[in-house]
Write the structure tokens for this entry.
Amino acid sequence: MRLAILTPVLAVILMFAGAASAMDKENTLYIDLKDGRVVIEMRPDLAPNHVAQIKKLAREGKYDGVVFHRVIDGFMAQTGDPTGTGTGGMGETLKAEFSKEPHSRGAVSMARTNDPNSARSQFFIVLKDSNFLDGQYTVWGKVTSGMEFVDKIKKGAPGSGAVSAPPDKMIKVQVAADAKS
């Protein structure tokens, strides 16, 4: 009898918990690609400074039109360099915020140089589980919908991942709380 009562109560609790996380528009990022919208749940609980910088750059329109300059089939798609070369960046240099969050398919993580504290604006979306990156790069989000559009991003050359012209780009990037459409 107790189980019969507990089950509907649990269902209501889970429904509200799901609705609460789904409604956190301040920590949801929209990336519009040529094939559709990618929705990323940002994780300030894991990487508060990285999330703050991503939101600041998105709100300033700095990511709009930025290309995916390095895309390695079966590994990841990298963007966030305004020069499109992989050597540029925007915003402040960030101190690493490593966590135990895995680099599984759909994870969004910061790119950096050999210096763990060198991330700025470049990030990558993991196309296939890449746990060898765990604890070495800052995971700041997870794709919650639109991975099918990420999978369609133009792939780069085998090995280097350098994308030939014209590369795919992020058409518009916006914090969901600010989105008009």
